[in-house]
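The records we work with from here on pair a chain with its fold. These numbers are not coordinates but entries in a learned vocabulary of local backbone shapes. To see the layout at work, look at the sequence and tokens printed below.

. . .
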Amino acid sequence: MTIVRLGSVLRIGLAFAALAAVSPVQAAGKSAAGKPKVLIIMWDGCRADAIVNCNVPNLRKLAFGKWQPGYNGAWSLCGKSIDDARGYSFANHASMLNGVMAAKHDVYFNHQHARCRAKEWPSYLTRLMDADPKIKTCFLYACGPCDWNLCADDRVHNKNFGLDCTGECDYLAKLYAGPDAPDAASLYMEHPDDVGHKKGYYPTSPEYIAAVEENDRNLGKVLAAIAARPTFKDEDWLIMMSTDHGGYHTMHGWRDTHSQTTPIIVAGKRVVNGQMAGFPRNMDMPTTALAHFGIDMSAMNLDGRVIGGELASWGPAKSIDEGLAWYFPMLAKGKYLVNAVKDGPQAVNIGDEEYFNPNRLFSNFATNKPCLWIGGCSGTVVGAYLEDSVDMFLTPKPSFAMTMWVRTSADANEEPCIVANKDMSRPGSPGFAMTCGDHTERTGPGICLKFGTSKGEDVKIGTFDVEKGKWTFYAIVFTPEKQIWFYQGRSDGKFHWVCERGGNALLASGLPLHLGQDGTGAYKYNYSQFLDDIAVWKRPLSIGEVKLIFDAGRKKKQVKDLLKIDLKTGADADFIDTTEKAGIGIEKGKK
């Protein structure tokens, strides 16, 4: 019996959902909680999955509600950049100061800071001083040679640090220790973006990881200085962190999930602990800051909303097998896929069985065990469909998750389907498809997720780079909050995801879910490569659950080996080789 301990990275997802809830953020000035104070941390170019792939203890403490006694943490790792501009720095950082979108502040691209309508749409710092001239404010920025003063207010303490994020944080830490400490401050830290452009955001480079971790260490000095203030116990701090964009390879700056999936963290005494509902946006931070000071915003016409008070309606279940509907661990040799879920619906082979064979032995999980090989070539229909899989997408808010391991030898040119319930011959048709060889705007060909919309259009998510000849982990998750998550776990252990709004998604196609084929089962470009440990749930999986399955695979374990882990507490548990105790049994030989 092997005991595998859940590391700190896994606990990021599992512990988030297990934290206790308290009263939400409220519009209040000085109250029993203390004198209001705000710090908005504006990072540049920080992917949401950097919170998992990097060692960032200070951000995690803020998010987990473990920064200081009495302080709670709310988080979202599917936050969004502003909707009406591409994923550029200046457009989003302007919104992180004034709480409106580009249509109002008029900054759409980099180096347009001079055209910011700061008089018409002032920063939250200006609005605070207008409400109370005694409030001290500060905006520090380290973003290269640009003297980026979006506040346009001489009353705000502004200082440009070039690219010196260390000096910037040292300076703010000293301010907090002295008589000129700001009541409200914004701290712009550019370092991850600078390195991402040189060495790569995704797949995450060692240099990018080092830059994110350096930012966190510098932030730690600021947080320590706040906690060391002699008046700290009489203060009510609200500390928020987000970023302007993510990145793909060495680029960003387009409307794509790699650029526009961002982290958002809110820490405070009146914040609800746990994952925030929906899609919080970076421009919500200044609105939340104004609410913290009790400012009346009814006539401001801001686009941001107050966040930190509403939890997600979904999260990890008590155990992995909850909601598990189909599971194909490929344990035994045979011509047919066998659903390991006891009394569950089966898979039905289509096409030439010669090219659809779980009877071949290939090395996945470093074991001599079968995996699913789908052969054939263009025009050879091969695959399988899942019985009774049509109805699960017919509900108004379908909940769904699917995990699998994929091995493919090369980029494909014909866009074969790995899994789909969509008619690929009809662009914009309802349903979804995970394909190999497609690409989005300015991304290279790779593994892509697409879905049809009510507008008759296809939306693409990704793309993830193909790891040629290597087993790579993928997961698809649909939540009742209309979030569409797409994950990749790479052979080097890095765990990536992107997330898209699915408010207008049409996931129900009337067609069954297919493996290796589109929803019709007649698509001429079948997926002619390898799959393993395929699992489908009729519920969403949390980030922690998906990460758990990925980490287990890298430790030569499968979904079936995770069934006794208590997901509500993240408690350690033995992996088991049998599934009967969890209500799941392998029914060998069933066809």
Summary: Confidence is low (pLDDT under 50) at residues 1-29, 570-591.
